[in-house]
Write a structure and sequence with these properties.
single chain
Length: 230
């Protein structure tokens, strides 16, 4: 890559995608802190769980109508393509992607599924004596279901932590070994111009459409909980 090309920046991530990412990071952090450190304010933990569900639902909708690098069709690769990319990465012959590479794309899917599962099990979760925290749908299910939801909620969080560690490790690997600084790109929305495999530059999604997806996500989550008796 020439010096002129390296200093030229092209759009990679649109604003709604970036806001979502950092909002989800904050949501996971608040969820952990309100569970481990905020025993006196369980309402914060419950509300944070609802917000996480809204964020996940927003990202699902945005994955179909958002900017070019935000769409699932642009980064959810077939198993064969993902394996081939992994093997090429080990040999140092992988292609560079403006958006998510095939392995990174599947990590995005995994994180969304785990965060969504955390939020859903939280709706039915309660502590053993139900004196500290109760999900909004606890009264609608049996004690056995509550106990199962409680166990799953904590097991899924353990899996989420593993996924986060792997994700951070991959970001550090790309920064140190591959000299690809992914974090600044997710802040500014731009990457250095280059011969990317997927696209030369990204097409951003409309902010108005993102707001519509957010409103739809809010409606789906809140009305869904109310319809279920919460």
């Amino acid at each position: 890559m020439s010096e002129a090309t390296a200093t030229t920046k092209v759009p990679a991530w649109d604003l709604p995608t970036r806001v979502f990412k950092w909002a989800l990071v904050a949501c996971v952090a608040v969820g952990w802190a309100s569970d481990k450190l905020g025993g006196g304010s369980p309402d914060v933990h419950v509300m944070n769980g609802r917000i996480m569900l809204v964020l996940v639902m927003f990202r699902i909708l945005w994955g179909f109508v958002g900017g070019s690098t935000a769409r699932f069709s642009s980064f959810v690769a077939s198993p064969g393509t993902s394996i081939a990319y992994g093997l090429a990465l080990l040999k140092g012959r992988e292609g560079h992607y403006l958006g998510h590479n095939p392995l990174g794309g599947w990590m995005v899917v995994a994180l969304l599924l785990l965060c969504g599962a955390m939020g859903l099990t939280g709706l039915f979760n309660a502590d053993t004596d139900r004196m500290i925290i109760e999900g909004p749908l606890v009264k609608m299910v049996s004690d056995a279901t509550i106990s199962l939801a409680h166990k799953l909620h904590h097991k899924i969080f353990d899996l989420l932590l593993i996924a986060i560690v792997l994700h951070v490790a991959a970001v550090v690997f790309h920064a140190v070994v591959k000299k690809e600084r992914l974090v600044p790109a997710m802040v500014t929305g731009k990457k250095p111009a280059g011969p990317y495999v997927d696209a030369a530059k990204a097409t951003p999604g409309a902010v108005g459409l993102a707001l519509a997806c957010l409103v739809a996500a809010l409606a789906i989550v809140w009305l869904g909980i109310r319809a279920a008796g919460g």
